[in-house]
Write a sequence for this structure.
RNA sequence: GCCCCUUUAGCUCAGCUGGUAGAGCAGCGGACUCUUAAUCCGUAGGUCGAGUGUUCGAAUCACUCAGGGGGCACCA
């Protein structure tokens, strides 16, 4: 028997046999892990691979739960007889519950809770359908109500296995009880293991939909398919530490089902956007992420280097100029959904790499795109949230803030906003001294080299933000802040451009495209001028882009939508880190950095310690 | 880059003005044949983020550094 007094010896034994546990590994080895590594070895010793890949589940939890809701007979407690088999099962005969014919099924997943109660065991299993499970359980409650049954807890994301020792005593004892074993005497199955079971669906006395594990000639009632040697967090409190949640998303996704739900929504948003644009004859493309010159946005870049060509490269800050080359080439409706990289500060709203949708449409103006964007966003809200109203952030009094995303959206000129919210009169709007004075009064910091237009925009964004909670298109931007946008025909001082704000944050930016190559060349030249004056966020002169425009780009409008921020709105997340699976974090302390030679830190695996399946 | 908060067992957290560490869950041993945060009995588990200092004595006080969170600045 393995007892506590022998623990030190057993540890030494494990270190002998387990290359994973060799001192010097950068990963910690606590007592719980040593135990689990011993259990892993015990499975090898018994001739059972703890990492077998020969089990095929026939059903997911959701499919099982749908079966339970598919027939009024299945809604109440019952025991099951295998389809086509005689009723000779002892447990069935001894039960006074209704009998239902059920198919033999195989189910698999991660054990999240194990409850051994004498000679029966209950195991809660999480599989890929977990995010959908609550909805199916809620649907069953509707059916139960119709026939007068009390509702059941619908939140549980797991499905239950029921194991009675009588059905397979050897397996039951080895997995859940203390027995004699070569390298481990205790139960071999732990919370966190991936397990696979076979048997018949039934409903327990308390009404829980369950799989009654029963062996077959082909295999035992229950098997460990992957031994987990690292313990999961507390089953009740779960994983709360924000840092661990982000660094170890695999644990976060296992323990926190609302996280799984956010990324399911993210996937739906991406699918919905593609469907919307595909239906309107847009073509999805992929353009380079590595650029030789900067353009398409005002932002600081990441720099990298190509060895063979011995040349510097930038990670792209925007795909805009490539997409418009494609419009020149005749792809009149084109879009790309992909990552941009900007070398700027991190915040609740900013990640160094973020996903952007950009789409371009020939023979359209920025006004056409306003209509298209508000239609897209209201449709997405309906598809993803089931309603056009979302709850995001909180009001001044702390109550949840409800935002209506149904079209149409308000449209506000920058000048009108400045007059209304910054209390400036018409004359002051074009007077730099007055604007700077007002900015000073409002505590808005301005660059010394900021131009009149830039001051107008910055002042606007500072005073308008609290008023831009409901979706609002802001338009009539000064020309010098938008070097790629088309000037307004009646007033060349402004460009035909809008930004869409929702919940006080910028979601979208769009404009009618400048397609006069001469004008475009001059605006690039202006950018170089501003750079000479110290503005670091200017664009390079992209001469090939000017050449493309010289061939002629059809009149067009283009739009960018920050997908991460849109997902935030639709999922209620207030930090961009919550909607990015692996947001940027500093390297963990105590582990080797990305540039370190990690190969040298990991000792070679000794041969012959465990069966090698290859 | 600046300011504030935070880091204690595998997880979630206590630990008061300085006296060398606690609970629940998980683990291990035992009881229990329909539980669902199962229950009951017993038991083990810690370089208190790292370092330096003050002190007879530091999880606790001071300083430095690191990670994380929030805010400012920059930006989408």
């Amino acid at each position: 028997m393995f007892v506590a007094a022998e623990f030190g010896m057993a540890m030494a034994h494990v270190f002998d046999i387990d290359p994973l546990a060799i001192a010097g590994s950068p990963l910690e080895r606590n007592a719980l892990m040593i135990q689990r590594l011993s259990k892993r070895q015990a499975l090898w010793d018994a001739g059972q691979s703890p990492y077998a890949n020969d089990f095929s589940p026939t059903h997911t939890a959701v499919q099982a739960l749908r079966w339970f809701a598919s027939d009024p007979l299945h809604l109440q407690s019952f025991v099951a007889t295998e389809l086509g088999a005689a009723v000779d099962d002892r447990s069935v005969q001894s039960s006074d519950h209704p009998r239902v014919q059920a198919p033999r099924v195989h189910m698999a997943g991660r054990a999240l809770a194990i409850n051994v109660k004498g000679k029966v065991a209950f195991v809660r299993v999480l599989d890929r359908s977990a995010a959908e499970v609550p909805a199916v359980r809620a649907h069953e409650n509707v059916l139960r109500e119709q026939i007068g049954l009390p509702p059941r807890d619908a939140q549980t994301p797991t499905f239950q296995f029921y194991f009675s020792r009588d059905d397979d005593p050897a397996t039951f004892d080895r997995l859940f009880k203390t027995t004699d074993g070569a390298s481990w005497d205790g139960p071999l199955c732990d919370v966190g293991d991936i397990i696979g079971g076979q048997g018949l669906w039934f409903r327990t006395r308390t009404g829980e939909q369950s799989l009654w594990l029963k062996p077959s000639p082909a295999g035992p009632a229950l098997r460990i398919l992957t031994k987990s040697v690292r313990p999961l967090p507390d089953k009740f409190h779960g994983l709360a530490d924000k840092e661990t949640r982000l660094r170890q998303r695999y644990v976060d996704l296992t323990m926190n089902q609302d996280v799984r739900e956010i990324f399911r929504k993210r996937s739906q948003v991406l699918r919905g956007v593609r469907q919307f644009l595909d239906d309107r004859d847009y073509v999805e493309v992929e353009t380079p992420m590595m650029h030789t010159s900067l353009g398409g946005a005002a932002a600081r870049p990441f720099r990298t280097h190509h060895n063979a060509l011995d040349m510097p490269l930038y990670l792209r800050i925007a795909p805009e100029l490539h997409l418009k080359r494609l419009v020149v080439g005749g792809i009149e409706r084109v879009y790309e959904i992909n990552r941009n990289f900007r070398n700027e500060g991190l915040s609740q709203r900013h990640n160094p790499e973020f996903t952007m949708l950009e789409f371009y449409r020939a023979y359209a103006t920025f006004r056409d795109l306003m209509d298209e964007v508000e239609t897209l966003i209201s449709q997405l809200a309906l598809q993803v949230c089931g309603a056009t109203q979302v709850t995001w952030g909180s009001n001044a009094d702390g109550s949840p803030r409800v935002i209506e995303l149904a079209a149409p959206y308000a449209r506000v000129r920058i000048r009108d906003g400045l007059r209304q919210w910054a209390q400036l009169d018409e004359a002051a709007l074009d007077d730099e001294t007055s604007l700077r004075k007002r900015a000073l009064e409002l505590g808005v910091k301005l660059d010394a080299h900021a131009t009149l237009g830039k001051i107008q925009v910055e002042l606007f964004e500072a005073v308008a933000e609290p008023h831009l909670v409901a979706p609002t298109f802001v338009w009539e931007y000064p020309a010098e802040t938008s070097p790629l946008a088309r000037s307004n025909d009646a007033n060349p001082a402004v460009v035909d451009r809008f930004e869409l704000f929702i919940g006080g944050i910028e979601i979208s930016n769009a404009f009618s495209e400048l397609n006069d190559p001469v004008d475009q060349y001059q605006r690039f030249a202006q950018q170089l001028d501003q750079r000479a004056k110290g503005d670091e966020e200017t664009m390079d002169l992209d001469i090939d882009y000017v050449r493309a425009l010289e061939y002629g780009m059809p009149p067009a409008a283009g739009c960018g939508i920050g997908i991460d921020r849109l997902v935030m709105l639709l999922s209620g997340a207030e930090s961009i880190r919550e909607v990015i699976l692996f947001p940027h974090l500093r390297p963990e302390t105590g582990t080797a950095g990305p540039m370190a030679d990690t190969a040298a830190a990991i000792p070679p695996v000794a041969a012959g310690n465990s069966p090698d399946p290859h």
